[in-house]
Design goal:
Blueprint: H1 2-33, H2 36-72, H3 81-102, H4 104-113, H5 117-147
Helix pairs in contact: 1-2, 1-5, 2-4, 2-5, 3-5, 4-5
């Protein structure tokens, strides 16, 4: 259980912390300092690196979460409501990430590669708003995870 818990928490930190940093710190500063061509190229490369780590985090979260549910708690019928809430939020967050990765992100990369910065800006705006919503869900998940023992 200790290994699963540690890996689970580290994956949470990478994903939610990365979204928080990108959404609340990096993007606003980059928007103020850089013109669209350079800003869009930078954000595309940053997201490319970050999304690799998100894939690792998502896989680890699902593996360790299910490991704890079935290996430690004894299955779905034995977990608290807070874990059911976390699972529901995890499904939504994962689907939103998959949407970002396979829809607006490839379009962003393509638009940047052909220097269509107007289209790239639209793609990045979709990514930013979806990451913002996913960040809210992620923070809610942390609240449920830490406060769930009291439910």
């Amino acid at each position: 259980m200790a290994v699963a818990t540690v890996l689970h928490i580290l994956a949470v930190i990478v994903w939610i912390g990365g979204m928080f940093f990108a959404h609340m710190a990096l993007r606003p500063v980059v928007a103020n300092l850089l013109e669209p061509p350079l800003r869009l190229q930078l954000m595309t490369q940053v997201l490319e690196k970050f999304f690799l780590w998100v894939w690792i985090a998502v896989i680890l979260l699902w593996l360790t979460g299910l490991w704890m549910i079935f290996g430690y708690f004894g299955g779905m019928t034995h977990i608290k409501i807070s874990v059911h809430i976390m699972l529901t939020l995890a499904i939504i967050m994962t689907l939103l990430y998959i949407y970002i990765y396979f829809m607006p992100f490839p379009n962003l990369k393509n638009a940047v590669s052909i220097k269509d910065f107007k289209q790239a800006s639209k793609c990045l705006a979709k990514i930013r708003s979806t990451i913002g919503f996913n960040l809210i869900l992620g923070l809610a998940t942390v609240i449920v995870a830490t406060g769930g023992v009291y439910l």
